[in-house]
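Reference record
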Amino acid sequence: MLMSKSLPALVLLALLVGCASRAPAPSTAPAPRPAPPAGGWPARDGPDAVIPPDLHKVPDAAPKLENIRKGGPNKPYEVLGQRYEPMAGDEPLIERGLASWYGRKFHGRPTASGEIYNMYAMTAAHPTMPIPSYARVRNPKNGREIIVRVNDRGPFHRGRIIDLSYTAALKLDLLRGVGAVELERLTYEDIRTGAWMRGSEPAAPVEPPPIYVASEASGAPALSTTASVAAVPPAAVPAATAVPTTDPAALLADEAPLPQIRTVAAPGFWVQLGAFSQLAGAESFRQQLLKEADWMAPLLAVFKDRALHRLQAGPYPTREDARQAAERVRQALALQPVVVERR
């Protein structure tokens, strides 16, 4: 009786063991990794899912004279244990190295300059170039060149010298990843004289209207209707006191007390501030302006015109822009500048 009662339980146990032995063992293989996005970019950055059409038609950045910001994005900084010292003044820079680009991860976010990053604009990031700056970037493999505005910091990888926007990389045919480039910063002189426009011939300057010269009594520019009145001795212009060395304009003045004069200028509208028979007089007045209105630093230039050295500020794209600048000078410095068009 005892054996007959326990038999069903033993049979049930045997059946359960048999079923367990036939059940498949749990898999130990790792889960399949998701395929990388097209082009091999990591998921954290790359192009947008939908790219705007005709990006190759986006014009290059148009260089213009902008003051180099003091502090802010131009202060020394450290990234990944590496210390960077941004350039403090308007200095030339030529580099050869690798270029990369950055896209949707940063699109719409603030750059180092505080401006919003637009991956479809012609901008770039550089670790030490002054912000803002303009630079020519060339792909030596295909000969393509572009002009970009540097408003951000980066890249921070060994061997890379510039991080391009999506459109800038597209125009250089560098979207496949990292590629070799040649980099040249455009200086104030490059922009002021139009030298950055390779292959273009600057037009002869237009004879300006009545000029303003420094009067011996006050040292301030006075109206003259004839060129002969402009022969004012340089001593008639009071020398400016020292400009702080942190000012980019001061760096230029210290390195070149008498600036290189020009015979041609970039097309556009210029504000004429004075005309002098000697270069020393123009330079002395230039330094006085730097002391009293440092915002004019990147705009000032001296042009040799026959027997005169003309101190002018520009170029401005429109006559109205030049007129507003002349009005600002008139209110700040009690001068009466005139607007000159150069074609």
Residues 10-43, 199-260 have pLDDT under 50 and may be disordered.
